[in-house]
Amino acid sequence: DAKTTQPNSMESNEEEPVHLPCNHSTISGTDYIHWYRQLPSQGPEYVIHGLTSNVNNRMASLAIAEDRKSSTLILHRATLRDAAVYYCILRDWGSGANNLFFGTGTRLTVIP
Amino acid sequence: SQTIHQWPATLVQPVGSPLSLECTVEGTSNPNLYWYRQAAGRGLQLLFYSVGIGQISSEVPQNLSASRPQDRQFILSSKKLLLSDSGFYLCANGGSYNEQFFGPGTRLTVL
Questions:
Q1: Pairing relationship of beta strands B106-110 and B10-13 according to DSSP bridges
Q2: Taking chain A (112 residues) in consecutive chunks of 10 residues, what is each chunk's mean pLDDT?
Q3: Searching chain A, which residue's CA lies closest to the CA of residue B49?
């Protein structure tokens, strides 16, 4: 699976939008972009995924650049419960094992 | 909806002792199951995955082994623990390309 690059940490004020960037310049045509988050002492939690078009769900929005070499996870209104490490992962839908490569992610701090 | 159980939640073991961590899955059948390890302050490292009973693939050479005795049971083992085996062990289920579901994890400390 191709590699992703994320900032180590970000801060946001509570109730403000948060834009978490991810670069994936070596993405292939069959790579899906996945986002997971991990709260302290818990397993990762799926957030959202997409291929080419922007995606929205109850947790977040995913904005994908036209060339697919970068994407942004958008939390529309940060809460204290959103404080976590956010992982951007590329997943080749053609791979058989369905395993995910987690980097070190972005640690989001939400300030009350 | 599916649920992944892991136990124990925490474990402290001496170096050289054996290890057995268990993962069971409810609410789905024929899952693809995974064991990950997360060292302190690091990302997740895939250790093993299994696509069915008795089928185990290892991602990295190591001191650990895995077994899949039943469809919804995945076990991580070691005959002799090393200090470097300390970490947060996560079991996951991924049945499609969409997402993986993770269990609550087991925090292992080897002293």
A1: parallel
A2: 86 97 91 91 91 93 96 96 94 63 89 95
A3: A97
